[in-house]
């Protein structure tokens, strides 16, 4: 049999993975190493060479787009249809399964899937029915908690409350929400996988059918699987099936979303007779870029280990620029983008990556100033973000309480018991009497033609705006903005949101205060607040580039995964920004931040820039952070420091006496290592200050939080 077409484009490691006859296969595919090619060609090999029927193959990806592309590539390679093969996402395949076995899964035949907004609506219903204060028990927080329990495979009856009042209430909400969903015949996104898993566990005949059918299971992006997905896989795989898992433990960056890097680390233990193949040849980046990535990621302790290499040549060094402040940083970024474009390169081939969404504001402003089209990938421009629009609406009401658009937007945001019927009544009264909604609300309260509860809630809102307005003349713009987001309850509402999204929204609101602090009014005759709001409106009118327009790409580091660009600028490479300050307090978070840095670096194909600021006004206050440890991890020979006249005022990156270190030289310990203390119990090492026995070590203990100890007297024990 001629297998030339299947093997001709593969390197030695790829060919080894494609043709392996081991029962189970773990392919550790480094960034840019051709993992999709390996998956496609392995399926083609099984069909064409091993004579496996497509009917007996199950291929799992993480996006519908990837599933479609995989199917198309296999069919092109084999020149035949693969209609019998199941290819899809975990959720898509679970949905297909439940539709076929709806009765066994205890679902109505025409069950519907709730999207995120619909799910939130039902949780709000449940919260109200249980007579819970939605300020104290925010529905969004409950939504996040319920979904995270399902991702762990937990039902309400499986959760130990241990007399914890918070857990007791959350379990009560979860149970009531579950009962409501069952009554309505609907399931949410997280329920798909859990219900499919329970179908297999509760119906042995159904499980046996699929175990007999799918003898060959292939899974992409294995490092991003969560607990229920991994259990799903282990349950489906029988003693006769073979499993191919393709992933990269160094690119596991979604722990905040439930992904468990432990799954890929445990694969060899859970699936006996596993062969491991490492794909280390990179086809994307120059060797200087890869050497930097390797140097950063090797600092993580718990990894299976790869060392990326390329035959694309050394390439340019990594450029490091230490700016005076965030505005200087943005100017430098824009100057390099202009130079790139003037050399005849496409704008879309350049990307600016940042850790926090809030960083985009200053960069966006600089791009607008120099008329460079840009697009925020996978997100919205700063002033178009929901939390920012809400905060601006409060500020517009302070300037003019008769602004109907602003009134409608925030009258019940955060929730204060003013329902849609009340708002409709106010709107109708305003329209019938040709007055503003503010005036209509006052009149309806005074005339008592609205129920007492709604009247009290409306009155409280009007009083709140009046109180904010009283400080219009007395406070500077930044303090006015800070007052608005605090007194309105906006920032507290988002602080209660769990996960990365809530944190990002808080940071954006704090950055709005920073934008106000840096605003320079043009006139002394017009209120500063009015000038600022006008400027925001003008910037909002400058729309980001259309999808088909050549534009510079702006995105968070998380959004960049899976993408590649000839030019990459990683902005804000400073301690407490990247790695994020929150990573210092949670075991495992710092390792994930390091994997995120690795992902960012490996997006670059030809040119890579690191930028940082010696002082940065972010989230409304000034920060003086040292350069990121991820920059210091890169050997000097791969970095070229850029110094512009009158910009950099002190040496930047490679100070030998830097206080924060990952190395812990001569201590006998490593970053991320679990240790035990005779008083504080078990913990994880976060940082070192200095080296040797006199080093100060930062340890996050499970019971007492973070402590700084002198190593010589701490008597830490390795676990």
What would you say about this model in short?
The protein is of the alpha/beta class and 719 residues long.
Q: Please, what is the CATH homologous superfamily of the largest domain?
A: P-loop containing nucleotide triphosphate hydrolases
Helical residues, percent: 40-55%
Largest sheet: 7 strands, parallel
Instruction: Indicate the low-confidence ranges by residue numbers.
Output: 645-661
Roughly how many Å is the radius of gyration?
28 Å
Number of helices: 27
Oligomer: single chain
Strand order of the largest sheet: 11-12-10-13-14-9-17
Top CATH class of the largest domain: Alpha Beta
Give the count of structural domains: 5
| CATH architecture level-2 label of the largest domain | 3-Layer(aba) Sandwich
Round the mean pLDDT to the nearest integer and report it.
Answer: 86
Q: How would you describe the overall organization of this protein?
A:
By secondary structure, the protein is an alpha/beta fold. It has 5 domains: 4-98 and 194-281, P-loop containing nucleotide triphosphate hydrolases (Rossmann fold, 3-Layer(aba) Sandwich), CATH 3.40.50; 112-184, Orthogonal Bundle (Arc Repressor Mutant, subunit A), CATH 1.10.10; 318-381 and 544-642, P-loop containing nucleotide triphosphate hydrolases (Rossmann fold), CATH 3.40.50; 384-537, PCRA, domain 4 (Orthogonal Bundle); 674-718. Helix 21 (477-487) runs antiparallel to helix 23.
């Amino acid at each position: 049999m001629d297998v030339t077409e299947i093997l001709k484009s593969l390197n030695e490691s790829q060919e080894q993975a494609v043709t392996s006859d081991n029962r189970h296969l773990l392919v550790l595919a480094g960034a840019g190493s051709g993992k999709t090619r390996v998956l496609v060609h392995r399926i083609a090999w099984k069909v064409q060479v091993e004579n496996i029927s497509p009917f007996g193959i199950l291929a799992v990806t993480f996006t519908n787009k990837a599933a479609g592309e995989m199917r198309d590539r296999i069919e092109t390679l084999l020149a035949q249809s693969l209609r019998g093969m199941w290819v899809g996402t975990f959720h898509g395949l679970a949905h297909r399964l439940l539709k076929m076995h709806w009765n066994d899964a205890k679902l109505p035949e025409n069950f519907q899937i709730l999207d995120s907004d619909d799910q939130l609506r039902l949780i709000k219903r449940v919260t109200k029915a249980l007579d819970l204060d939605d300020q104290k028990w925010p529905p969004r927080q409950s939504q996040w908690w319920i979904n995270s329990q399902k991702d762990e495979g937990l039902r309400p009856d499986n959760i130990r409350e241990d007399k914890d009042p918070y857990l007791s209430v959350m379990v009560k909400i979860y149970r009531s929400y579950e009962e409501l969903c069952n009554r309505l015949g609907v399931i949410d996104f997280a329920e798909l996988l859990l219900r499919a898993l329970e179908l297999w566990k509760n119906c042995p005949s159904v499980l046996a059918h699929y175990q007999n059918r799918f003898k060959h299971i292939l899974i992409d992006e294995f490092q991003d699987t969560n607990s229920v997905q991994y259990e799903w896989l282990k349950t489906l795989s029988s003693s006769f099936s073979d499993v191919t898992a393709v992933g990269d433990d160094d690119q596991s960056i979604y722990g905040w979303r439930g992904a468990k890097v432990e799954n890929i680390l445990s694969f060899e233990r859970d699936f006996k007779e596993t062969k491991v193949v490492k794909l280390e040849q990179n086809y994307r980046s120059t060797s200087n870029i890869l050497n930097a990535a390797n140097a950063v990621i090797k600092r993580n302790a718990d990894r299976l280990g790869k060392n990326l290499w390329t035959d694309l040549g050394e390439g340019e060094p990594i450029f490091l620029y230490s700016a005076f402040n965030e505005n200087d940083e943005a100017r430098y970024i824009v100057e390099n983008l202009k130079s790139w474009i003037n050399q005849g390169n496409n704008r879309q081939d350049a990307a600016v990556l940042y850790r926090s969404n809030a960083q985009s504001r200053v960069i966006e402003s600089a791009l607008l100033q120099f008329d460079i089209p840009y697009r925020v990938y996978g997100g919205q421009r700063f002033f178009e973000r929901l939390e920012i629009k809400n905060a601006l609406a409060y500020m517009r009401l302070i300037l003019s309480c008769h602004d109907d658009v602003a009134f409608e937007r925030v009258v019940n945001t955060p929730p204060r018991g003013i329902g849609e019927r009340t708002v409709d009544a106010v709107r109708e009264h305003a329209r019938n009497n040709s007055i503003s909604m503010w005036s209509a609300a006052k009149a309806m309260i005074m005339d008592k033609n609205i129920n007492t509860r709604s009247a009290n809630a409306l009155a409280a809102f009007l009083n709140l705006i009046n109180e904010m307005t009283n400080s219009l003349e007395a406070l500077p713009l930044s303090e006015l903005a800070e007052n608005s987001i605090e007194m309105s309850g906006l920032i507290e509402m988002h602080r209660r949101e769990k996960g990365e999204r809530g944190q990002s929204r808080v940071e954006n609101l704090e950055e709005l205060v920073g934008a106000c602090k840096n605003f320079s009014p043009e006139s002394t005759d017009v209120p500063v607040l009015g000038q600022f709001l006008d400027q925001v409106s003008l910037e909002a009118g400058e729309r980001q580039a259309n999808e088909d327009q050549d534009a510079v790409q702006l995105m968070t580091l998380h959004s960049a995964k899976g993408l590649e660009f000839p030019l990459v600028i990683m902005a804000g490479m400073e301690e407490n920004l990247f790695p994020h300050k929150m990573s210092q307090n949670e075991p495992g978070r710092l390792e994930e931040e390091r994997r995120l840095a690795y992902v960012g670096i490996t997006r670059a194909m030809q040119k890579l820039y690191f930028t940082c600021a010696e002082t940065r006004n972010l989230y409304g206050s000034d920060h003086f952070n040292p350069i990121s440890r991820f920059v210091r991890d890169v050997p000097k020979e791969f970095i070229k420091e850029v110094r512009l006249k009158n910009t950099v005022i002190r040496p930047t990156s490679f100070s030998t006496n830097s206080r924060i270190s990952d190395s812990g030289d001569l201590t006998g310990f490593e970053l991320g290592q679990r240790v035990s203390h005779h008083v504080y119990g078990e913990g994880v090492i976060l940082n070192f200050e200095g080296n040797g026995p006199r080093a100060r070590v930062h340890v996050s203990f499970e019971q007492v939080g973070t402590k700084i100890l002198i190593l010589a007297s701490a008597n830490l024990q390795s676990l």
